[in-house]
Amino acid sequence: MAPYLERVKSFADVPVTDAGVDTLQFLEACEGLVGLFDLLGSAAFSVVQSDLRGNITKLRTRYDAFPAQSGTLEQLVESEKGEKKRTATEGLMWLLRGLSFTCKSLQNAQADKTQELAPAFTKGYEGSLKQFHNFVVKGVFSVAMKACPYRKDFYEKLAADPAGGAPASQETVDAELDKWLAALDAIVKRMEDFYAKGGYGKGL
């Protein structure tokens, strides 16, 4: 088996066409991102994982019910437009916020190799999810940020081969992570623009 980012679906491999972002492959990549929090090794992040998983499930449920109208994320949201309860549209909106938090946090860590994860994730949270959270949830996230592992330990887990083979080099991990994050960032920004232009987040 290979290092973590080579074992999960990369956002860099999610097809994005004129019609939009491929729904099923996007969700597969999201599941890989949820697993990344296991490497952070703190129960404090279970609230983040639970939230991400719940929103992935909402999108899968919608896709399974209306596969022909849900091939891309854009088509899925568009098809739910006239409905009273837009469960998948709301689920995707929150999923994108969670992805943005994870992406920004890891981009902070990648941009400054001397920075520990706790400040990198705190800054990521402040630039993404924090504005949407109430006092209680902010407190939960504050605890989670403080529970981040040491940078060295996390990157070692990213590089490790669970089958016992030689770990990947730091250069390989950095290259894979940078590619993964750039693609994730592009998808999140694309979908945020789509929501803003179409007013899809209104009333949710």
UniProtKB/TrEMBL annotation:
Domain Glycolipid transfer protein: 21-159
Entry GO terms, CC: cytosol; membrane
Protein name: Glycolipid transfer protein domain-containing protein
InterPro entries according to UniProt: GLTP_sf, Glycolipid_transfer_prot_dom
The species this protein was found in: Schizophyllum amplum
SUPFAM superfamilies per UniProt: Glycolipid transfer protein, GLTP (SSF110004)
PANTHER family found in the cross-reference section: GLYCOLIPID TRANSFER PROTEIN-RELATED, PLECKSTRIN HOMOLOGY DOMAIN-CONTAINING FAMILY A MEMBER 8
GO molecular function list: ceramide 1-phosphate binding; ceramide 1-phosphate transfer activity
Keywords for this protein: Transport
Transport recorded as keyword: yes
